[in-house]
Design a protein that fits this description.
The chain has twelve helices and 36 strands.
């Protein structure tokens, strides 16, 4: 347990951290302080150094995020740099080698012809891991670029860590021509760039094999929405189109990475109506695919788990409603079984391995656990606790999400997750419908701040995976295309009726709350079914689909974005809440960041103006410098405080 003591004594020096004890289960539920739900996670982006001697992480302290390097043997801690998260935030940090770090930063900007729109940009930096040094930027403007003054928007796309060359990495970046990716070898000490693969007009992104050779490229043609996957054929040494599909019209084919064999390409593709994992043999004619992993009900998605020690892909991080690691390597399969036995009722992921696969970092989470970090040593059989990510939220505070199924009005079977407050006594209670964003995403059984906060306040919370959600096959997800405000919205109404029939929801006390697409759905709930809900909260929601669709002309994949909304402008007008405010009967809370790069803040400003003009009850909060993802602590605090006050006022228990 020496490691446990060392880690926490070191963190005390940084943040005066005091031990959190797990109190006995209270006889009567007392709501948690609001800060328990909006605070930053203690640690993020943990990774072991290749030799397993140091632990890298982002450490959050009172709104400051510091890059932390912890020496496991001594407990020494070094902080190469930090940010106050105002101008820029860390995307991720990782080891370039045992002595050097790579850091991705993101920030909001205005660029292009329409300077009223916000965009997200990234930068890639390098710094020493164990001693003070100058931070360098790896991608600098190209003086020979086709367009003078062009600066790449995304500069942190690493396609290979070049395992046999610790001083270099491979980057894919449109440094030469906008939207056209060139592959460079970058020196992580000097920042010197050497061109490896010049851009190709039909390729938007490149993939390298485990040896660092560029072997595949993914292209996109916006005219017909066709996505093509090209591979470097080892027999002809020519680039060949291996697969293609039309975005939305056909199931995706998505390369995910190579095995140790440079001719073994793993990819996601359709199998019996669901996305599955395959591996293709690039050495054989036609590149035949072999099924690796599938599920009869849910799509397989995630990222590959590669073990350098075994020189093979050993498994995949996977979600079938519950996030988990799936291994097909027998050694790792037994290893995972041992971890699951030691930590039952949790989803346990090995998030980082040393190069010899003997030391590891484990992330453990579940219904009653918002996340804990553990460090393990397979040789000494140690598994020690490092940190709880949100330490105030213990199993005495949280509740389990129940998996529920219900029928839509047209008979379609739908799924969702129900959280019941600890005070629930088999009598209908005030209820919140919480649709997810996307809309082509999904909710699962794991912890999330919003539902945890709401159920802690005494509300029942239902998170439906309405038609158009991801994870349930291509046909189910494609019902989102052109379906905004139609059957997708009816599914939310049907969820309310289901909860009322089940004597869970009080029909006179139901509110709809959501962010992004969920925020749009909340506004549609207030306009399409004004008698169903008592209030609505929209964070970063769309309010005018016609105007939103028109902004896509500034995007590279404009045609795909427009197709997602549909081409019937009259229908888009009829499903735009800002054009239907005369139907609003309930109080509405609008919250939006003014640097939102996904949904322009103009969407909430428009809704607020329309509500004011028609003298409706509403509140509008604009977060200065706020983004789409509520990733700045003061903004998260302001949002949670506003929601708490609004719900107390308009949805009393």
């Amino acid at each position: 347990m020496r490691l446990f003591r060392l880690i926490f004594s070191s963190l005390v020096l940084l943040m005066a951290l005091t031990a959190v004890t797990h109190a006995a289960k209270p006889a009567k539920h007392t709501p948690q302080p609001l800060s328990s739900f909006y605070r930053d996670e203690v640690l993020d982006r943990l990774e072991l150094s290749p030799d397993g001697t140091h632990l890298l992480a982002l450490k959050n302290i009172d709104g400051i995020t510091a890059v932390m390097v912890y020496e496991l043997a001594t407990g020494n801690v070094f902080f190469p740099t930090k940010t106050d998260n105002k101008e820029f935030k860390f995307n991720w940090v990782r080891w370039a080698n045992n002595d050097r770090l790579l850091m991705s930063l993101r920030f909001a900007s205005r660029r292009g012809m329409n300077t009223s729109l916000q965009f997200t940009e990234t930068r890639l930096l390098a710094v020493d891991a164990k001693k003070p040094s100058k931070i360098i930027t790896l991608v600098k403007p190209n003086e020979d670029a086709v367009y003078q003054g062009w600066v790449s928007q995304f500069q942190d796309n690493i396609i290979s860590m070049l395992p046999d060359d610790p001083e270099h990495i491979l980057l894919s970046v449109d440094r030469d021509l906008p939207g056209h990716q060139t592959v460079y070898k970058a020196n992580v000490y000097t920042g010197k760039l050497s061109r490896v693969k010049k851009y190709h007009s039909s390729v938007r992104s490149w993939l390298a094999d485990r040896q660092g050779n560029v072997r595949a490229g993914v292209g996109y043609n916006d005219r017909d929405r066709r996505i093509s996957i090209r591979v470097l054929d080892p027999n002809t040494n020519k680039w060949t189109e291996a697969w293609s599909y039309i975005n939305f019209d056909e199931p995706d084919i998505s390369p995910v990475g190579f095995g140790n064999d440079p001719n073994e390409l793993f990819l996601f593709a359709n199998h019996e109506g669901r996305q599955a994992l395959f591996k293709a043999d690039l050495s054989k004619p036609g590149y035949p695919k072999e099924l690796v992993l599938s599920h009869p009900e849910y799509d397989v998605s995630g990222s590959l788990i590669y073990s350098p020690a075994h020189k093979q892909v050993v498994g995949i991080y996977y979600n079938d409603g519950q996030s988990k690691s799936i291994f097909w390597n027998q050694e790792f399969k037994a290893f995972q079984a041992g971890l699951d036995k030691a930590l039952p009722d949790s989803n346990n992921y090995i998030i980082s391995l040393s190069e010899d696969a003997r030391k590891y970092v484990l992330y453990s989470s579940g219904n009653l656990n918002p996340g804990a970090i553990l460090y393990g040593n397979r040789d000494t059989k140690e598994l020690v606790h490092v940190a709880d990510l949100l330490p105030e939220l213990t199993e005495d505070v949280l509740v389990k999400k129940e998996f529920r199924t219900y029928k839509a009005r047209d008979g379609l079977a739908l799924e969702g997750y129900l959280s019941l407050p600890k005070t629930f006594a088999n009598k209908p209670v005030a209820t919140i419908i919480l649709p997810h964003g996307g809309p082509m995403s999904e909710d699962g059984s794991g912890f999330d701040r919003f539902s945890a906060f709401m159920v802690d306040r005494g509300y029942a919370v239902f998170q439906p995976n309405f038609r158009g959600s991801s994870g349930r096959g291509h046909d189910f997800m494609m019902q989102a295309i052109g379906g905004y405000g139609l059957e997708m919205q009816d599914d939310l109404e049907d969820a309310v009726h289901y909860l009322v029939r089940e004597k869970i929801a009080d029909p006179k006390k139901v509110c709809i709350v959501g962010a992004s697409y969920g925020g749009y759905a909340a506004l549609m709930g207030a306009t399409k079914t004004p008698d169903l809900f008592q209030c609505a909260i929209s964070f970063a929601g769309m309010s005018d689909l016609v105007k939103m669709r028109d902004t896509f002309r500034y995007y590279m994949a404009a045609n795909s974005y427009r197709e997602q909304f549909g081409n019937d402008r009259s229908q888009l007008k009829e499903t735009s809440p800002a054009r239907m405010v005369d139907k609003v009967k309930i109080p509405i809370l609008l919250i939006h960041g003014d640097k939102d790069a996904s949904v322009p803040v103009a969407q909430s400003r428009l809704m607020a103006k329309a509500l004011a003009k028609t003298k409706k009850t509403y509140e509008y909060i604009e977060l200065e410098d706020g983004t789409h993802h509520l990733d700045y602590l003061p903004h998260r605090q302001q949002t949670f405080e506003a929601m708490d006050k609004f719900l107390n006022q308009y949805l009393p228990l």
